[in-house]
Amino acid sequence: MRIALLTRAKDRLYSNRRLVEAARARGHEIEYVHTLNCYMDIASHSPSVHLGGQELPFFDAVIPRIGASVTFYGCAVLRQFEMMGSYPLNESVAITRSRDKLRSLQILARAGVGLPLTGFAHSTKNTNDLIQLVNGAPLVVKVLEGTQGKGIVLAETQKAAETIIDAFRQLKANFLVQEFIKEAGGADIRAFVIGGKIVAAMMRKAAEGEFRSNLHRGGTASLIKLTPEERSTAVRSAKRMGLNVAGVDILRSSHGPVVMEVNSSPGLEGIEKATGKDVADMIIQFLETNAKPKRTRTRGQG
């Protein structure tokens, strides 16, 4: 197969290096395609993608590693590849859906997936009611555009919650208010899903004095065995998002597993080192089985 790795970081990132190693080890051609340097000929009969003054060749598969800050343009480029018949590891529609925190939670809620109590409002007149919707303080305030634990604040008291919410509104930031799952103890689970199956799972534990368990913020990771309910929750969440490959972040609450986020571009370093599994190779194997021309479900329509 000829594979495009759609990214800005090239081999600076562990995940990119591992995917390239795995693809080449299995005899495939793979090349980096810089997301923001691409430009497109949006023609009805022969759509194309160009880079550096040249039209790119046809790729059997595209692995999108699109940064959150360039989701709009990155998905436009991926959609163009889909129109040309390339098979995306994750489709542009599914990535866009998962990157919208509010939309993704609404989709999961409609499917009956367990979630933390979550509130969303615009008017400053509703602050107190919003806080009560999630059973009051302590609570978590999340900026919708945040990634890797950025833009997430823990408000431990009612007054702190009011102050944080008012500050975010002054900045005209879109944000969610969620209940704080104290019983999780600063730990969460990352379940790695490929093709509707759990292939690896780890528990991430927050650093001392921190409530966010992201590895980018000093958290540690270890191997974990999922319960049947956690496995079902992760698989259903990825399926509802329409993602072939996903990192599903779950908290263990007193009322069962609750999903915090479904990541459409999950990193490989933490999960591979914590579990000892060759997740990159599993991703390439999935493409070998499924990457057929014009097999994309939406064909760039959404």
**The CATH topology of the largest domain is what?**
D-amino Acid Aminotransferase, Chain A, domain 1
Q: Oligomerization state of this entry?
A: single chain
Number of helices: 9
Range of strand content: 25-35%
* Main CATH class of the largest domain: Alpha Beta
Could you explain how this protein is built, in words?
A five-stranded antiparallel β-sheet has the order 14-13-12-15-16, sandwiched between helices. Strands 2-1-6-7 form a four-stranded parallel β-sheet, with helices on both faces. The protein starts with a strand and ends in a 12-residue tail after the last helix. The model has no long low-confidence stretch (mean pLDDT 91). It is built from nine helices and 16 strands. Strand 15 and strand 16 (256-263) form a beta hairpin. It folds into three domains: 2-97, Rossmann fold, CATH 3.40.50.20; 118-180, Dna Ligase, domain 1; 183-285, 2-Layer Sandwich (D-amino Acid Aminotransferase, Chain A, domain 1). The chain has 302 residues and is α+β, with helices and mostly antiparallel strands.
Secondary structure topology:
Elements: E1 2-7, H1 14-25, E2 29-34, E3 39-41, E4 48-51, E5 54-55, E6 61-64, H2 71-83, E7 87-88, H3 92-99, H4 101-110, E8 118-119, H5 127-133, E9 139-143, E10 152-155, H6 158-170, E11 175-179, E12 187-194, E13 197-205, E14 220-223, H7 228-241, E15 245-253, E16 256-263, H8 269-275, H9 279-290
Parallel strand pairs: 1-2, 1-6, 6-7
Antiparallel strand pairs: 3-4, 4-5, 8-11, 9-10, 9-11, 12-13, 12-15, 13-14, 15-16
Helix pairs in contact: 1-9, 2-3
